[in-house]
Amino acid sequence: MQDYYFYIFALVVIVVAFVLLKKVVSCLLKSVIMLAIIGALAYIYFTYFMQ
């Protein structure tokens, strides 16, 4: 009976870790995309408009 509790606990931990990882990765991905857009706009600004 002890083994069943271990497997249930392991399954719950895996599900919680997956949900947390999904939220963190989606937020991190949005941040990386936003930084890339800001960097591209800054490059365009300083290359073409600061002459």
Averaged pLDDT: 88
- Helical content (DSSP H or I, runs of 4+): over 70%
Low-confidence stretches: none
Q: What class, by secondary structure content?
A: mainly alpha
The total beta strand count reads: 0
Helical stretch tally? 1
What value does the Rg take, in angstroms?
Answer: 22 Å
Basic shape? rod-shaped
Distance N terminus to C terminus? 75 Å
Beta-strand percentage?
A: under 5%
- The SSE order reads H
The description of the largest β-sheet is:
none
Word description of this protein:
It is a single chain. This protein has 51 residues and is mostly helical. The chain is 92% helix and 0% strand. It has one helix at residues 2-48. The longest helix is centred in the middle third of the chain and has 47 residues, at 2-48. The termini are far apart.
Q: Would you kindly provide a brief summary of this structure?
A:
The chain has 51 residues and is mainly α.
Question: Could you name the key traits of this structure?
Answer:
single chain; mainly alpha; 51 residues; 1 helix; rod-shaped
Describe the SSE topology.
Elements: H1 2-48
